[in-house]
Write a structure and sequence with these properties.
With 145 residues, the protein is mainly beta. The protein is 6% helix and 48% strand. The chain has an 8-stranded antiparallel β-barrel with strand order 1-3-4-6-7-8-9-11.
Length: 145
């Protein structure tokens, strides 16, 4: 019986296990500037499931309504974690039904905190691929469950 380890072994499965569950946004930096998140933005959640599906909930005020309303679809996105990079994709979720993909460096992951840095985006609208330095989005998330 032989057991081997190599420098190629990764901790992606550990990261995946730690990321499972629901995360609520706590702060956001866009292009180097701290954003003041409104009451609706502070309701945003990412929920990662063990089957590599991701449920994103976003909220906004619609019209004259002061209440926060969930916006966007109820689509579960495919996600993966490879080499400390979180990627999520919706093949038809982009502009005009095209591909929608976002890639984030996982800058911190603990039992209670998740810090993501967006570095790549395809949405079928505007610039595609690597995000320019002045548009990098860093988001901090707190574990809900």
């Amino acid at each position: 019986l032989g057991i081997s380890c190599s420098s190629d072994d990764s901790n992606d499965s550990n990261i995946s296990a730690e990321i499972f569950g629901k995360w609520k946004i706590s702060s956001s930096i866009y292009g180097g500037n701290t954003e003041n998140l409104d009451q609706c933005e502070l309701l945003e959640t990412f929920e990662f499931f063990e089957n590599n599906k991701l449920d994103i909930k976003e909220y906004d005020q619609i019209g004259n309504n002061t209440n926060c309303t969930e916006v966007g679809g109820n689509t579960l996105l495919d996600y993966s974690v490879v080499n400390n990079v979180l990627t999520y994709t919706n093949p038809t979720g982009g502009y005009s039904g095209g591909e929608f993909t976002m890639k984030f460096y996982i800058r911190e992951l603990s039992n209670q905190n998740l810090k993501l840095e967006l570095f790549y985006e395809i949405d079928g609208y505007g610039q595609e691929g690597n995000v320019p330095a002045n548009e990098i989005w860093i988001s901090n998330w707190t574990k809900v469950n």
